[in-house]
Amino acid sequence: MPINLHYDDYLAVITIDRQESLNALSRSLIQELGLAIDEVAKSPARALALVGAGNKVFCAGADVEGLLDRGFWAEREGIRLGQDTFAKLDRLRVPSIAVLHGYALGGGLELAMACTFRVATTSGKFGLPEVRLGLLPGYGGTQRLPRLVGESCALELIMTGRMIDAREAREIGLVNDVVEDGDAVAIAKAFADRFVRHSQCASLLARTAVQRALDLPLAEGLRMEADLIVQAFQTEDAHEGIRAFLDKRSACFTDR
C-alpha cells in the first residue's frame, strides 16, 4: 500500500510509501490518501502528520509518466481529484503537519502547503518546477503559495521553477520551522506538543477565523471573528480555561 495510516498516541500519521518512484503522486495514491484523511477525520486523533517514507524525499510530485496518455477530460478529472483531496486537509477538524525531509517538489509541495503547518529538516529542498514541463501547478500551488509567501515571491518561484533550500523556505514563510534531520514522527510530535494540549474547540475556531480572513474584506472579517469568539465563549473549555487562569492552575480541557 503506498499510503499507510497509523496512530502514535494522540497523533495520526499518514506515510507516503512509494519509494521506488520517489513517493510520486499517482492517481491511485491520491485516492488512497483521500480515504486515509477520511479515516483520520473519524478518529480521536488530535493532530495529523504527513511524512514520506525513506530519508531522501517527502514527495517528488506528480507521476509524470502517467500524464502523457491523458486526454482532456481525464486530465481535468485528475486535477479535480488532486485539488479535492488536498482540500480535505483544510476541512479536517484537527491541524495537520507536513514533515519535509529531502525533496518536496511539484504536487508534493502542493500537498505540504495544504497542511496547516510545515516543518522542514535541514536537508529539505522545495520547488514548483512545472513550468519546465510547459505546465503550471494544478493541485492548488498557484493559490496557496501566494497566501503563504506573497504574490511577488510566489510568481518568482512558479515562473522560474527554481528550487530553494530549507533556510530560504523559512525566511520567506513557506515553512514554519527548520530542524535537524531525524525521525519524522518524533519531529511532528515535538511540533504538535506546542499546541495540541490546548482546547480543540478554540483551535478549530481560530483556524476557521484565519482561513476565512483570506477571502473577506476586513470589516466582514471582524464581524465573523466576533461571531466565532462568541461561539468559543459558549464552550465548556472556555469556562474551564478562565477558571483555571483565575485559580492559577493548568486548565483541563475536554474539547466540549
UniProtKB/TrEMBL annotation:
<comment type="similarity">
    <text>Belongs to the enoyl-CoA hydratase/isomerase family.</text>
</comment>
<dbReference type="GO" id="GO:0018812">
    <property type="term" value="F:3-hydroxyacyl-CoA dehydratase activity"/>
</dbReference>
<dbReference type="InterPro" id="IPR014748">
    <property type="entry name" value="Enoyl-CoA_hydra_C"/>
</dbReference>
<protein>
    <submittedName>
        <fullName>Crotonyl-CoA hydratase</fullName>
        <ecNumber>4.2.1.150</ecNumber>
    </submittedName>
</protein>
<dbReference type="InterPro" id="IPR001753">
    <property type="entry name" value="Enoyl-CoA_hydra/iso"/>
</dbReference>
<dbReference type="Pfam" id="PF00378">
    <property type="entry name" value="ECH_1"/>
</dbReference>
<dbReference type="InterPro" id="IPR029045">
    <property type="entry name" value="ClpP/crotonase-like_dom_sf"/>
</dbReference>
<keyword id="KW-0456">Lyase</keyword>
